[in-house]
Amino acid sequence: MDPAEEKELVERARADDKQAREEIARKLYPPLLASAVRMARRRDVAEDLAQEAVFRALRAIRAFDGRSTLFTWAYRILVNLWLNFARQEGRQRTGTLSFDDLFENGPSAADGAAGPERLAGDRESLQRLWNAIGELPDSLRVTLMLVVFEELNYEEIGHALGCSEGTVAWRVFRARELLREALQDVLQAPG
Predict the structure, then answer these.
(1) Same domain assignment for residues 82 and 136
(2) pLDDT of 133-152, one tens digit each?
(3) Which of 28, 35, 37, 153 has its CA 20 to 30 A from that of 47?
(4) 28 near 70, Cβ under 8 Å?
(5) Which domain holds residue 167?
(6) Residue-level pLDDT at 17
(7) 102 falls within a domain
(8) At what angle do helices 138-148 and 70-89 cross, to 10 degrees?
(9) Phi, psi of 103 (to 5 degrees)
């Protein structure tokens, strides 16, 4: 959503324009759901978290100050919901998510002219990567996901997570370091 369109939608939503609120919900829900799936690692929990994040963002739209994008602001709400959920459940991991769940159809022959052996190896490596990401501490995993999957810059991530850009940089560095350690055998395998 371009900044001018976003500003206009927010102003209309603040004035209780039902269509503007519905449009904001339609634009926010899919990326928030995708992020929630990667955080919660369970589709049912992710759907609840994403819906609640959209609901809370719309309920508090008058508090949105425009210093970040609407998505970044809503993402912070989502992250807080996820962290509260994880604490209430008394666990950091809420299940396992397969590579196929993450990317609905998984890799296919259409994703490159790879043969079945290569695809099987890629699938196994990607599943190991996803499992290793799932084992990261929440703060590192969420920060890494914002960089890799959401393609946000460090300033946007810092705003979404309520931390400095330096903290974001350290978390990304540490997450990548832990992933390199966990996947050392895969990274050193002949290609």
Answers:
(1) no
(2) 878 888 888 888 888 877 77
(3) 153
(4) yes
(5) 115-185
(6) 94
(7) no
(8) 150
(9) -120, 90
